[in-house]
């Protein structure tokens, strides 16, 4: 009967533990919009055999749509060896372990203690022993059990917050995965573009040098003046000045690719990438705007951070409410270790503790208000992330349209320059034009080709950016089994 009050208190604590103070997290609704841009998009981008397919899902290995075996191999290597990705995986494991550690507070704690001592009582004091001896040994073995019922759900809110942080870390991993694949794809495109630009610039310098030689011969014959020669020398100098920056970018891009692959710069892949080996995907999957909030890793991170902040409000509220602690201990004390399990040596105790904060100078109140402010901040950050995500998609779609038109115009310009060169060469063969006209046509064609290569690289890069802006299809990977959209 003496145990009845304690049992009733434990039962009441267990019943009250079914509720948790603080706000219950509600997932924010997706923006109510039917499209990403202000104006409807044309189904086909101009100047390219490419079509936007709305409501189509993005494949997990979206980079294979560029149909480049070299690109596929490099991205697979990067995903297997990049240290930043391994670090994100370790951070996720640590976050999940923190959740499990906090869940341990749901269970009673038990400690076993063994305390042997050798004691001497002053002769002026009476001995505690029946024998009256002042020098004795005492062996004590004790089992202590403690339990703090989660009456108002403070611990559950803390677990909820840590679980949300673990989920956010999981989406950090997905963001790192997507960013790595995108960066490798962009690095390959830029590397191929720069290699072509360097090669074309060398051709331009060579053509300009040959043209300068003709100018100097004409000057020697008195056909042109020094001003024409000086202008051609300036053109050569200008072309030569543009070469070192391109070579610097090429070296830096190769080093960047090596780092993405988890290699040292000295171990950069010695691959001559060709821009024409990369194909524009004929169809670009374009997910619905309502799905973007589920597919973008950064939005999911912001949502989980909002969830964690919401749970922290509950933790702060629970800290201001009463807390209950239940304790029990049982043990044995004896003068000899072998007598610990003998009769007359046992002892036990059972207790309960009720703690209600009364005055703390407003500390707990202000912590609750701070948690509420952090929750509101997380909400604003979530809305900002959503707006930024929609802007990314809209910008990528607009860039694809704009660069497609630019590529179309520059491709036509290159074709026109090629036709002009062919005509100049035919005229030279017929004796109707000299070498100077042919060199000028060759130079114009090389410059047109250089501009077209830059536009082609931008077109490919914009397509990569759109795949990244749409989330990259991580939810379709085989190793993704939880929290998928």
Which helices and strands, and how do they pair?
Elements: H1 4-16, E1 51-54, H2 69-81, H3 83-103, E2 109-120, E3 135-147, H4 154-220, H5 226-260, E4 283-286, H6 289-295, H7 297-318, E5 323-334, E6 346-355, H8 363-429, H9 435-469
Parallel strand pairs: 1-4
Antiparallel strand pairs: 2-3, 3-5, 5-6
Helix pairs in contact: 2-4, 3-4, 4-5, 4-7, 4-9, 7-8, 8-9
Report on the structure:
This protein is of the alpha+beta class. The chain has nine helices and six strands, in the order αβααββααβααββαα. The chain has helices spanning 4-16, 69-81, 83-103, 154-220, 226-260, 289-295, 297-318, 363-429, 435-469; strands spanning 51-54, 109-120, 135-147, 283-286, 323-334, 346-355. Helix 4 packs antiparallel against helix 5 (226-260) and helix 8 runs antiparallel to helix 9. The radius of gyration is 37 Å and the shape is elongated. It starts with a helix and ends in a 16-residue tail after the last helix. Residues 1-6 and 481-485 have low confidence and may be disordered.
Strand content: 5-15%
* Count of DSSP-assigned helices: 9
What Rg do the Cα atoms give? 37 Å
Count of the separate structural domains = 1
Q: How many strands in all?
A: 6
Strand ordering within the main sheet:
2-3-5-6
**What can be said about the biggest beta sheet?**
4 strands, antiparallel
Helix and strand string, N-terminal first?
HEHHEEHHEHHEEHH
- Which structural class do the helices and strands define? alpha+beta
Distance between the termini: 55 Å
Low-confidence stretches: 1-6, 481-485
- Text of the CATH class: Mainly Alpha
Specify the CATH homologous superfamily: Outer membrane efflux proteins (OEP)
Mean pLDDT: 87
CATH architecture descriptor: Up-down Bundle
The helix content, as a percent range, equals 55-70%
CATH fold annotation: Outer membrane efflux proteins (OEP)
Shape: elongated
């Amino acid at each position: 009967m003496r145990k009845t009050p304690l049992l009733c208190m434990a039962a009441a604590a267990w019943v009250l533990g079914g509720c948790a103070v603080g706000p219950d997290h509600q997932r924010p609704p997706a923006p109510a919009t039917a499209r990403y841009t202000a104006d409807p998009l044309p189904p086909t981008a101009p100047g390219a055999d490419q079509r936007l397919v709305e409501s189509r899902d993005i494949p997990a290995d979206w980079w294979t749509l560029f149909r480049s075996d070299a690109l596929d191999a490099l991205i697979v290597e990067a995903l297997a060896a990049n240290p930043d990705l391994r670090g994100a995986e370790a951070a996720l494991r640590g976050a999940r372990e923190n959740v499990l550690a906090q869940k341990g507070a749901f269970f009673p704690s038990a400690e076993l203690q063994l305390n042997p001592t050798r004691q001497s009582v002053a002769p002026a004091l009476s001995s505690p022993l029946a024998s009256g001896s002042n020098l004795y040994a005492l062996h004590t073995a004790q089992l202590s059990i403690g339990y703090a019922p989660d009456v108002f759900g403070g611990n559950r809110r803390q677990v909820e917050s840590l679980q949300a942080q673990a989920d956010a870390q999981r989406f950090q991993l997905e963001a790192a995965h997507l960013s790595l694949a995108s960066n490798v794809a962009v690095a390959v495109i830029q590397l191929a573009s720069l290699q072509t630009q360097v090669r074309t610039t060398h051709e331009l310098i060579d053509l300009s040098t040959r043209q300068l030689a003709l100018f100097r011969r004409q000057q020697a014959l008195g056909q042109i003046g020094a001003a024409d020669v000086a202008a051609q020398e300036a053109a050569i100098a200008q072309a030569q000045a543009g070469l070192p920056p391109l070579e610097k970018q090429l070296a830096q891009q190769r080093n960047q690719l090596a780092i993405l692959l988890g290699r040292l710069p000295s171990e950069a892949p010695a691959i001559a990438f060709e821009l024409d080996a990369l194909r524009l995907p004929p169809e670009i999957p374009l997910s619905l705007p309502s799905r973007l909030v589920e597919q973008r890793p950064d939005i999911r991170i912001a949502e989980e951070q909002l969830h964690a902040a919401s749970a922290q409000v509950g933790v702060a509220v629970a800290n201001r409410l009463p807390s209950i602690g239940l304790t029990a201990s049982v043990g044995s004390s004896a003068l000899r270790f072998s007598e610990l399990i003998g009769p007359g040596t046992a002892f036990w105790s059972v207790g309960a503790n009720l703690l209600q904060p009364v005055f703390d100078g407003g500390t707990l109140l202000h912590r609750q208000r701070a948690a509420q402010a952090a929750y509101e901040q997380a909400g604003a950050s979530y809305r900002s992330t959503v707006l930024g995500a929609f802007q990314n998609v809209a910008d990528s779609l607009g860039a694809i349209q704009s660069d497609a038109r630019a590529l179309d115009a520059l491709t036509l310009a290159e074709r026109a320059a090629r036709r002009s060169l062919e005509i100049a060469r035919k005229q030279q063969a017929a004796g109707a034009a000299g070498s100077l006209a042919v060199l000028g046509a060759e130079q114009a064609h090389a410059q047109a080709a250089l501009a077209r290569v830059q536009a082609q690289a931008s077109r490919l890069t914009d397509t990569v950016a759109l795949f990244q802006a749409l989330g990259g299809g991580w939810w379709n990977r085989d190793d993704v089994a939880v929290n998928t959209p």
